C-alpha cells in the first residue's frame, strides 16, 4: 500500500498541462482516489448547405427614385429565389436602410448638402443544393443583386459525425488516463463521471460582387466537428 499512501497525501495536483488531475481526499465523492483527464475527438464531413447574404444597393437623386429602383431589383431577386424552389423559411430580410448621401464644403463654411439617397435591401438565403449555388448567384447578379457576402457552410445532419467524434474523445481520455495511472503506480478503474463540450469549426467565405457577374465557383471545403470530454476515472494501487 506504499504507493496508495503516498498518493493520498496530495490534495490535488496537475499531472500534465493537458488537464489530468489526481484528486485528494476532500475532492473524492466516494472516498476513493481518482484521475480526471480531458480527451478530444474530431470528425470531418463535407457541407451540404450554404447560407449567404444577397442584397441590392441603389442610389438616386431622390429617396423615392432610389427606393423604386431597389424594389424592382428585389422583386426580381425574390422571383428567382422562389423559382429555385427555396422554401420561405430559408430566406429572410436582414437589412433595409434608406440613407441620404452628402457632399461637404471643403472650407467648412457651409453645412453638408444632400446630393442623393441610397437604399440597401438585403436577404439571408439558405441554399440546400450546393451543386446549383454558383448558377443561383450568377442569376441573382444578372437580375440586379450587387452585394453578396457572408457565405457560410454547414452540415444539415451532423449527428453521425458528432457520435464519431465522441467515441474518439473518450478513447483519447482513456488513453491519457492509463498513461498517467501507470506512471503513478496506479491501476485504472471504470469512469465515474463524463462531461462533454462540443464545438464546430465552420469554413467561411466572403464575396462581394458589383454590377457585372462572372462565373461564381463555390468551394464548400471540409467541416471539422470537435468534441472534448472531461472524464473522471477511479484508480487503485496496482499492487
Output the keywords.
5-stranded antiparallel β-sheet, Translation Initiation Factor IF3, 239 residues, alpha+beta
Beta-strand content estimate: 35-45%
Report Rg. Answer: 29 Å
Structural class based on helices, strands and sheet pairing: alpha+beta
CATH homolog superfamily of the largest domain = Protein of unknown function (DUF541), domain 1
The average pLDDT is: 81
Q: What composes the largest sheet?
A: 5 strands, antiparallel
Helix content: 25-40%
What is the total number of structural domains? 2
Number of helices: 4
Structure summary, number of beta strands: 10
Which H/E pattern describes the elements? HEEEEHEEHEHEEE
In terms of quaternary structure, the protein is single chain
Strand order of the largest sheet: 1-2-3-10-8
Low-confidence stretches: 1-29, 202-214
CATH fold descriptor of the largest domain: Translation Initiation Factor IF3
What is the C-level CATH assignment of the largest domain? Alpha Beta
| Architecture per CATH nomenclature, i.e. the level-2 architecture of the largest domain | 2-Layer Sandwich
Shape: elongated
Termini separation comes to 7 Å
How does this model look, in words?
By secondary structure, the chain is of the alpha+beta class. The protein folds into two domains: 2-46 and 157-203 and 222-237, 2-Layer Sandwich (Translation Initiation Factor IF3); 49-154, Protein of unknown function (DUF541), domain 2 (Alpha-Beta Plaits). The protein contains four helices and ten strands; from the N terminus they run αββββαββαβαβββ. It has helices at 2-8, 63-83, 133-142, 159-183, and strands at residues 12-16, 20-23, 34-45, 49-60, 91-103, 113-127, 147-154, 186-201, 204-205, 223-237. Strand 1 and strand 2 (20-23) form a beta hairpin. The longest helix has 25 residues, at 159-183. The protein is elongated. It starts with a helix and ends with a strand.
